[in-house]
Amino acid sequence: MDSDRIAxxxxxxxxxxxxxxxxxxxxxxxxxxxAGRRTAxxxxxxxxxVSLAGTLMPRSAxxxx
Length: 65
What we know:
Layout: H1 2-13, E1 21-24, H2 43-56, E2 61-64
Parallel strand pairs: 1-2
Helix pairs in contact: 1-2
């Protein structure tokens, strides 16, 4: 859920020392694997999460995986 991702970003942003990098994991479903039955995230939702991470932690590197 996006609320879980947002809560994680806020927690990381309020640490005394910001992290050097922040993983941003988004599932991309593939046919033939169990996760392939899930619906893909809408691209605007991904952009919003990445944007929020950059706003909250401008000195941390975002790492998409």
